[in-house]
Amino acid sequence: MTIDPSRLMRFVLDMRQAGVTDARALSALERTPRTHYAPDHLEGLALDDVGLPLAHAQTMTKPSIVGRMIAALAPEAGETVLEVGAGSGFQAAAISTIVNKVITLERWGDLTVAARGKFGTARLMRTFAHTADGFGGWPDEAPYDRIIVNAALEDFPAPLLEQLKPGGVIVAPLGDAQNQRLIRFRNGVREDLGPIRLQPLERGLGEAPSAA
User: Collapsing DSSP states into helix, strand and coil, what is residue 56?
Assistant: First the structure.
């Protein structure tokens, strides 16, 4: 699907109006075609600021929240980032426009395969998707410069903190289903970046219902 340049310009303007003002986050959103990662039947909504439904009651996060999360993470060139909650793969792809390498984890195997395929088609050769329980992180590639979690937690899991480089940054929504704050943690200091609402992070690997 070819994106009309004027529509893309409006999308970037919509992101600014929604509060995404960080230049790197805006550039990452602009350079990553959300239409490529959206479900095929919802491509027409990909450049609207809405969440889109994925399999297994998962959600492709609305782009203004993705922009806010990337701005909070503040990734730098040359870094390696761990993402928990690949979903469609869009946010990992956007982060990959800034950093050297992205490892993204997804508990549902079919979503992992789909995201991996999207990365391949987009020729993102240093963006890797794995099926894993996000609470345990991905120790094979640790330590990470930055870690981002696309779901709400009660607190940062110990394995994720252990996989973070000294002086590294981890960003996640902390709280319950009704009351969450976006928290950035670095060097023992927690910074509250305001209210946010994402689905709670589920433990274990996803399992599709067995046939009757």
Answer: helix
Enter the tokens of residue 138. Answer: 């991905």
Look at residue 4 and give its three-state secondary structure.
coil
Helices (H), the chain: 5-17, 23-31, 34-37, 63-73, 90-96, 109-121, 158-162
d(Cα 139, Cα 144) in Å, to the nearest integer? 9
Is this structure's pTM higher than 0.85? Answer: yes
Q: What are phi and psi of 42, to 5 degrees?
A: -120, 15
What phi and psi values does residue 191 have, to the nearest 5 degrees?
Answer: -115, 125
Which amino acid, residue 158? A
SS3 149: strand
Count the Cβ atoms, other than its own, within 10 Å of residue 197: 13
Task: Give tens-digit pLDDT for 85-98.
Answer: 999 999 999 999 99
